[in-house]
Amino acid sequence: MSGARVMVVGGGGREHALAWALARSPRVGEVILAPGNAGTADLGPRLPTPLGLATPEAVGWLAAEAERRAVDLVVVGPEAPLVAGLVDALAARGVAAYGPTRAAAELEASKAHAKSFMQRYAIPTAGAVTTDRPEVAGEAIDAFAARSGGRVVVKASGLAAGKGVTVAFDPAEGRAAAAAAFAAGERQVVVEEFLEGDEVSLLVVCDGRHALPLPLVEDHKAAYDGDVGPMTGGMGTLAPVDPWGPTGLQEAIRSVVTPTLEGLRAEGRPFVGTLFLGLMLTSGGPRLLEYNVRFGDPELQALLPLLASDAFELLDGAARGRLGDVRPVWRPGACACVVMAAEGYPGPPKTGVVIDLPSDLGRDVVVFHAGTARDADGRLVSAGGRVLGVTAVGRDAVAAVERAYEAVDRIVFPGAHVRRDIGRRARRW
Ligand code: AMP
Ligand code: GLY
């Protein structure tokens, strides 16, 4: 084999997109997917992950496999293996990895930890009270709600795949969410001031010293049109968006990104991988809602089709501390990703539904798979909550969104849950 052997860890749309982009690099010889999904089969071999991805045993097993297979670079998609120490286990075996160590990944592992980190480094964020006592949570809910027309935000502290957050319309709804989190065994909840504004995802590729911001992305996290309903992992994305103009982005880098990376370095845990900031642009400037320590999904699905330069060069450069030499080139135009989720999502999804996916949906359309599988007859079936990411590039945001919905309408997926207003906020900006 000539060219690098890369292992992509994870099995969602983000990992399909990573494998798709890496496989196009002339410097990549093979992409191994651990475990990938039904859509990744033609990109490279799949490595089943019998222990999963989220425990110390699982990451130990994966690191041993990467070493045994002489993998040159491991790109870690989801947060769970990062939090379980996969990058540390790989480093111990001398395998290069794109992703943060367990110590640096703590920013996503615990919302309570993240909040105290933000406060320690004076990073602008929503006012918050973190507590393990239901009565303290109740008082904080009433106090924050009184200041924001009844609205208040309640977050379970642990990893929740983006679903542990309730944006409540009144204190009673907030109290119910806190009670539900404690009843589910959550030790701490974070009660937050409700922030009003435009929300964007800022993804920054980091090599421990350099930081390279990617174009801003608009995600739609609520389940239903109009940004209402329960939180999901993300129902669709549009990139690039520009709600702030260049000075807003510079302000976010100055007030949020730089102090975060400097704080981590000062604490002896320099950050390699994607620092993903959920930002709200309020009338008082950008405020940080949350940290994630990996690429957003479906954010990355709308970014990689716009990347004209080599994805391997970017990720390998970051993993090896050489981001200073990398200058990514972006295509003009915009990219939209519309998620087709299973009936029931974000609740228990209906699986095993047969999907008819036309092989050619047109130029500049690519469908990234997430929860898909093949049934005994080889038919494509739903196998998870978010099932497909239907992604299209167009000359501008409107064209990209239209092209993505045209493709969605040609896919036969009975009962699919699709938001029809992806990109709505960007059209207003
Ligand atoms: P998080 O997982 O903390 O990013 O929260 C999920 C989503 O809830 C965010 O993407 C926002 O849309 C919303 N959200 C979180 N915190 C706040 C807040 N303080 N004010 C308003 N909306 C919020
Ligand atoms: N789309 C939001 C996330 O990846 O957490």
Structural description of this entry:
This protein is α+β, with helices and mostly antiparallel strands. The protein contains 13 helices and 21 strands. It has helices at 13-23, 56-68, 79-83, 86-92, 102-109, 111-120, 134-147, 171-183, 245-266, 299-303, 311-319, 397-410, 424-428, and strands at residues 4-10, 28-35, 73-76, 97-98, 128-131, 152-156, 165-168, 189-193, 198-207, 211-213, 218-219, 222-224, 228-231, 236-239, 272-282, 285-292, 334-341, 365-369, 372-374, 380-382, 386-394. Strands 11-14-17-21-18 form a five-stranded antiparallel beta sheet. It has a four-stranded parallel beta sheet with strand order 2-1-3-4, sandwiched between helices. The longest helix has 22 residues, at 245-266. The chain is globular. The structure holds adenosine monophosphate and glycine (GLY). Glycine is lined by residues 162, 219, 233-234, 292, 296-297, 299.
Summarize the structure.
The protein is an alpha+beta fold and 429 residues long. It has helices at 13-23, 56-68, 79-83, 86-92, 102-109, 111-120, 134-147, 171-183, 245-266, 299-303, 311-319, 397-410, 424-428; strands at residues 4-10, 28-35, 73-76, 97-98, 128-131, 152-156, 165-168, 189-193, 198-207, 211-213, 218-219, 222-224, 228-231, 236-239, 272-282, 285-292, 334-341, 365-369, 372-374, 380-382, 386-394.
Extended strand count: 21
What proportion strand?
Answer: 25-35%
> Termini separation (Å)?
48 Å
Round the mean pLDDT to the nearest integer and report it.
94
Total of helices:
13
Overall shape: it is globular
Strand order of the largest sheet: 11-14-17-21-18
Ligands (ions, cofactors included): adenosine monophosphate, glycine
**Main sheet: strands, sense, barrel:** 5 strands, antiparallel
List unreliable stretches of 5+ residues.
none
> Which structural category do the helix and sheet elements fall into?
alpha+beta
Q: Over all CA atoms, what is the radius of gyration?
A: 21 Å
Assign a percent range to the helix content. 25-40%
